[in-house]
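Why Protein O-mannosyl-transferase 1? Reviewers of the renewal asked for a concrete example.
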Amino acid sequence: MLGFLKEPVVVTAQINVNLVALTVLGLITRLWGLCYPRAVVFDEVYYGQFVSLYMKRIFFVDDSGPPFGHMLLALGGYLGGFDGNFLWNRIGAEYSMNVPVWSLRLLPALAGALCVPLAYQILVELHFSHCAALGAALLILLENSLITQSRFMLLESILIFFILLAVLSYLKFYNLQKHSAFSGSWWFWLLLTGVACSCAVGVKYMGLFTYMLLLTTAGLHFWHMIGDQNLSNVSLLCHFLARGLALIIIPLGLYLSFFYVHLALLYRSGPHDQIMTSAFQASLEGGLARITQGQPLEVAYGSQITLRNVLGKPMQCWLHSHTNTYPIRYENGRGSSHQQQVTCYPFKDVNNWWIVKDPGMQQLVVSNPPRPVRHGHIVQLVHGITTRYLNTHDVAAPLSPHSQEVSCYIDYNISMPAQNLWRVEIVNRESDTDVWKTILSEVRFVHVNTSAVLKASGVIGASLPEWGYRQLEVVGEKLSKGYHQSMVWNVEEHRYGKSQEQKEREVELHSPTQMDISKNLSFMAKFTELQWKILTLKNEDTEHKYSSSALDWITMDTNIAYWLHPTSGAQIHLLGNVATWASANAAALVYLCLSLWYLLRRRRKIYDIPEDAWQLWISAGGICGGGWAVNYLPFFLMEKTLFLYHYLPAVTFQILLIPVVLQHLNDHLCRSVLLKSMFSALLVAWFSSVYFVYCTFSPLSYGQPALSLSQLQALRWKDTWNILIRKQ
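Here is what the prediction returned.
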């Protein structure tokens, strides 16, 4: 029974020395001197703020993309024991001792280091030689821009890692297709493709470009499978479902999970939650939740409410009135109603309170039991402090003459009767009998007499003149063309009015609310709102000193100064390896020209290369050339401030194209021994130049050693490069 113990247990393993060596070299080049400089470098000032907010569990919104990349950076801070206490206010600020610099920069550096062996394996899976794969890895290893970008608390190296991992996983899956379909390894690489794609998109939306490329590639491969008569209909269906599950369903689920963790971690109110809806704000600890805690849920006749405009642009504001009236005549000579002003006020104020009144009754208190207001009910809105009724009439608004003026009615004994009836329309209702609810209901107020809709004026950035205290305009929109958030309001603060006398009511309006309400949003409701804000919230793009156009990137006519030592000439720049970038451009041009030549010749039934070599050439070009195109060309359509680092995913694919073209030239165009020898000698000289450029610009990639004035001037190979030289 125990006979197996008579022989020793032997475990054998195959180790790819190339892969191990490349991984070690990648770690050395990315991790060496990682804590230097111990100061804020370029966009660390931006991402560091989010890391601090994660450490303090404070909610934020970043319009640059999904939260997964930020969470990875925060994980580094968490592992390093960072408490979030650091003022990220300027580039070059020295880090205090509580900031774990090495830990914060570790994950981007590891991701950058692992891109080196990934490049090697991608070329191997594309069926190129180990020599070509080694060349691709070494080019990534010695690429100055990738080294610089991966050594700091930035997201591009993490994005490129997941992009390359997705490509490698798909290639491994595809290569297992013929002989090991539905095996354990087949499933592993297929699922890993979907996971890596989701992670890439979760880091930055730029990851969508490679995800779409792989989905298209998978679609083309499946289309070819449909024509395979050896596969049954059931087998094809299984292949289709497997790909749908791994490449669509799982990535979507994983993407949702990023937001779930993000929202679970950030449960405290902060400065960013003001752009969210009242319901979202009330779900956060502190902030609005403290103000609204204990409010009644259902709005009833006699309720005292504040109404917040849902749009929140150009800033959040509440329906407001005060004793001042519109001027008899505006600056342009137009006349007004001289009624009491109604505005949208961007601050909480007692004059934001309104009372919901039943037009058929005089009382301004909630009856017992309360009579809830439902969709379609007619109400009057009485200003709490001045007790005047919200009104509109056929008088042009002060800033929007095409719309009606909104006011609180003053009876001047002239031929302008009050028109103060409003119909409540619940926009997000589930049925026509829905009750108007605090925070949860989004409502429109439609004027009964004119059908105008109460709206926060769309004159973005404009405010009323001095007579209106620079507050925002409110109008009656006569031509309501469908749903727009500027016409939608929600009750934010709410209490049941108890005092019929005006003086007692004023005291009541100043007091806090007391009753209870549950306003917890579902995860999907919070996700939908947050996702929409990320996609639509745009900071004003301003011209940056180091911004550039997409055309500048190909020839590297631009650079970015990341950091400058306060006293010496030490500095860090985002600059690519000139020899590598020029070679990548040449490789792309050669690939395009050769592909067109081969296509024309094949059209004439002339086959210059074997069919398997042609298929290899096309597949490699689809991945490497296609990866460059989908990660580069979309930037010509984007209206945003662009920087050189946006080009790094594209140039990574373009670099992988270099050994593809070189091996093809060596195998199919260098036919004689002499030509092959000459070509090999040229390759050695070329690669030496790549290494020379890497060494030359290393001081600008690592920030050390400090260079003298003459050395810095010598590194300005292009007039368009902004190398920082101190005046003597």
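Residues 531 and 568 are 45 Å apart (CA to CA). This is the kind of structural detail the renewal will allow us to pursue systematically.
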